[in-house]
Amino acid sequence: MSLLARLAPHLPYVRRYARALTGDQTTGDHYVRVALEALAAGERSLEESMTPRVALYHVFHAIWCSSGAQLETPVDDDGYDDTTRRLMRIAPRSRQAFLLTALEGFTPSEAAQILDADFPEVESLIAEAQAEIDAELATDVLIIEDEPVIAADIEALVTELGHTVVDIAATRTEAVDAVARKTPGLVLADIQLADGSSGIDAVKDILARYDVPVIFITAFPERLLTGERPEPTFLITKPFQPETVKAAIGQALFFHPRKTAKQAA
User: Residue 83 and residue 34: Cα distance in Å, rounded?
Assistant: First the structure.
């Protein structure tokens, strides 16, 4: 089996991880591309003792840690934007361990392999990252979801995390109306809605006026993670685990600047 065939099933997910880690689609996709180029050129190789998925993330981290840090543009403290300030508060290694386990579903042991760390260190890194993220965040949330049971589950989890659900919309029109009544600090959006409308279109309507972080919810994340067009940075895959939702919400709010209303056209 060719290298590409072995890695193809895992590429959408390493893109998701890279985007969440960096907070940006372009930057995340760049790191993934550099890692794949290094593998293709024989500059890096997959560890035979690891599964293909673990080995791919391991190579990505080797690239990210060695060349990635050099690709960042340093700025003076006074010049930090909101996202950079948040990044400075959480050490990259803690953020990596947290995302690998909570968002990507790796076990702490697998995360230790990826990070070239031991198990106790990974557990400590995860706890540190979670504490930092939780201390930073609290906002109003709009849920766009047409399945009442799923919407109720999401609402309960969001509330448990300390956020306030300001509305639950089942259609594109309801979502736009909800935002007109109260601007949320975060949107959780399903893709297929009750009346056949699209959660993607609803989000486009919202983002045309308001700058808020969005997390899409879908049973088919690979359809939105091709690397060929502008795509969401944050995704939750159905059926979801509470830890996954928590990680995605934390990262979306962590990386996004404070919400501001855009000028109406």
Answer: 24
